[in-house]
Amino acid sequence: MPYRHICIVVLLGNAIFFAASCSETEEYVAEPQSGVDYHSFANTGDYRITHVDMDLTIDFSRKVIVGIATLQIEHLGDGKNPLILDTRDLTIESVQAGNHDQMRAVTFSLSDSIDIRGAALAIDLPATALTVVIHYQTSPAATGLQWLEPQQTAGKQHPFLFTQAQAIHARSFVPLQDTPGIRMTYSATIRTPVELRAVMSANNDPDAEKSGVYTFSMPQPIPSYLLAFAVGDLEFKAMGPRTGVYAEHEVLDAAAAEFADTEAMLEITEEVYGPYRWDRYDLLILPPSFPFGGMENPRLSFITPTVIAGDKSLVSLIAHELAHSWSGNLVTNSSWRDLWLNEGFTTYLTYRIMQFVYGDERYEMEMSLGYADLQTDLDELEDHDELLAIDVRGRDPDDVFSNIPYEKGALLLYEIEQKIGRDAFDQFLLDYFNEFAFQSITTEDFLAYLDRTLLITHPEELDVDRIREWIFEPGIPAGAPHPQSDAFTQIDTIRQDWLKGTEAAEGIDTSEWTYHQWKHFLDGMPDRLSREQLEDLDQAFRLTASTNNEIAFSWLRIAIRNDYEPAYDRLEDFLVSIGRNKFLMPLYKDMMAAGKADMADRIFQKAMPGYHPLSVKRNSQIIYPE
Ligand code: BES
Ligand code: ZN
């Protein structure tokens, strides 16, 4: 077994529960249990939250939210245990419980911060109480919030705040059962400075007057990691009847043009995989410090501005976040061990949506790029991190993040599709989304469903042992499909010729190259290039000045490996102005590997005030290893 493990018994009020945290003292034995969320304190067998109402006052000057959370509770057990909620860095001021207008103060205890899960809030609940009201405040260090100075926004005049709850950060801005196994509806009032607008993963009203008080409701039940809001100087522009963009004025038009195909993506996905069940689908364009590419917050995906390339080359991100409206938001992973059910299905759907909207060549190129990402991770990760159903006990889900649940998950589905045919597989997915709509499911639920569907209808083509190998073993099974693209084969030849010196960069006709080909061209370069070769590329193609962030990123990695210092100003600028962790981590890792720890430290210290807490944490681990 790759790591060791000990169970600590935590006593809290009259509740006893187990904390699965790592230690070096006791041999790790048992397998993780299916359906158990090792990242939540919540006693979901005793109580279930069915609805949360939030009243949140946003205080930009203190970087705190003053909140009132009103929870509706369903009793499942004998009522003897306290209600245990997840929190992190919250100050709990008071707790009341009761029914309707018969509320009274009740006793509660907040544990110390126990481990990566944060602190458990135990509330002594009268047997008849169906409602709990918690008055609390967040901390300026809340892991699920990023507070931006006006300087970090496009308009530079107003501050900005956004949440990022996945995986276990909702608890840092509202006390609740912070587990994807529980779904709840919600309502909210957000109080902001009068010149700003609040938006949520709910029923946004683009015509709402800027009043400083915004109300929302989310009638579809969602898991806590999809709770989201943002506050800023936001405007709205429609893209289609059901789609539009929220962004700062400075980026609104560019975003609406870049993502103009969103409505078409929505329509085709509905046609193939069943109705879109969330009413509207809008995008919120965040400032560049947003730590992810995108986040599938229901009705309102949160999107990095770094994909606004001017030529729609990076819009698969939108297809991805939209696809989550089926795989993830409708059918949800039951715990973080099952993340591949969200991300693998979504990655598969993303490729399909891209093919529907942009054709076969783009589909093949995007799949090939995904396959290359998968190979990189398979080369680098330890075996136990290559399973689809990964053992995340005692680990922060943020630290386990890789391409495995995405690309290995998608490749498994692609293999099934290849074996049984597209029509049969599309029908299967449509049925799957209907069967488990608005439910949270485990890997084992998926396997049981396969058992009563495809494994019966396609016994010749499919083999349960092979599917189990995909899910529970490292690597990819022998004979797995290998997506390829003719458009890339041509690039391979061109790259080979250039490397041999038979062709100068100037002589390469790149006029028809798409971003995908550029990325393939650069990522396929050998580790070492000479100074002459680097200059030849840079002079011919102006790579240091590329305005496509993905191309710039691939080029900067080459520059670091080869000590090409004409690109260093751009590198610094890139790292200071962008907070997307997918770019930051490889660049800082490359600097460390190239013996440039001083440079990494200097740039990181300069950039850090603008980074999200997650990016600060993950990149500190790289630059300052213990
Ligand atoms: N849901 C994820 C982001 C996420 C995953 C946040 C796990 C926290 C924990 C989102 O849908 C996503 O996958 N984003 C990718 C997009 C890409 C694969 C197209 C990203 O941000 O890079
Ligand atoms: Zn995703």
Structure write-up:
The chain contains 19 helices and 23 strands. The radius of gyration is 25 Å and the shape is globular. The longest helix has 21 residues, at 360-380. It has 3 domains: 7-233, Immunoglobulin-like, CATH 2.60.40.1730; 322-472, Neutral Protease, domain 2 (Orthogonal Bundle), CATH 1.10.390.10; 488-623, Alpha Horseshoe (Serine Threonine Protein Phosphatase 5, Tetratricopeptide repeat). The strands form 6 sheets. The chain has a 7-stranded mixed β-sheet, with no helix packed on it. A 5-stranded mixed β-sheet has the order 17-18-19-21-20. It is α+β, with helices and mostly antiparallel strands and 626 residues long. It binds ligand BES and zinc ion (ZN). Ligand BES binds at residues 166-167, 292-296, 317, 320-321, 324, 343, 401, 406, 582.
